[in-house]
């Protein structure tokens, strides 16, 4: 594995899930990557990714250094060939070029702007870090994907499912007050297509995910119908891909509560976090026995550890 930016970077995704579960059983291997360094660069906020990546790197015996480049770094120019007489102080060629001198592996978090779809879906920022740092790069959530999250999600499903038949997994849109990226649902769908599960997507019309992620996966526009018999429900808001970055609905009948849970097969309820309580998911679910969001968050350590272990080699 050269970089970790998508499920496509991984030869055997199911094997990586197994590896991460093995690491969870025995997480402390301080001699594994002693003397190695990871740089973790954040252009956007983070709680889980930031902390779990640092814990993961330390569990491997390596060191992690975090830079909130969006807050503490120089403002970065990503366009080629421009005269830099505006507000941007440093070009990505130098910034990433320098970062490349200091570390063995680089992690980058960069959200989409949700203004121009082509710019976001070209992964301009992530690709610039890959190109100019020359390092193996781990996506800490990019414009279109969040693969460390999806790997932890798959681990969590695997831990909770012991039957021979495939579980029914439903990803449902839920309302939100802000326009959020499609990265988490894109990525969850991209990984679940490789997993032994039956996947259904449900959302109001207009929230279809890009064909490259969701093409061929059944979409049911009636949330209650989609949820019938579900074993796992992944709740997440995202903004429209079609009418790019727009909020098309704030229909609170899609908020996940006990009415929704009642039609499932006593499903486990998942969310990547941060979650807005009583808007996306109701207290009655988050504080109840079906919610497994904290297990997902815990598994972020081991999913990151499995990935950094590969890239430190
Ligand atoms: C981000 C998102 O939806 O992509 C990060 C999730 C891990 N969420 C928010 O901005 C609330
Ligand atoms: N789930 C997740 O990536 O959370 P953070 O944005 O807090 O890192």
Automatic annotation (TrEMBL):
Its EC number is 2.1.3.11. This is N-succinylornithine carbamoyltransferase. Keywords: Amino-acid biosynthesis, Arginine biosynthesis, Transferase. It comes from Roseivirga thermotolerans. InterPro entries: ArgF'-like (IPR043696), Asp/Orn_carbamoyltranf_P-bd (IPR006132), Asp/Orn_carbamoylTrfase (IPR006130), Asp/Orn_carbamoylTrfase_sf (IPR036901), Asp_carbamoyltransf_Asp/Orn-bd (IPR006131). It is an enzyme of class 2 (transferase). Belongs to the aspartate/ornithine carbamoyltransferase superfamily. SOTCase family. Residues 2-159 form the Aspartate/ornithine carbamoyltransferase carbamoyl-P binding domain.
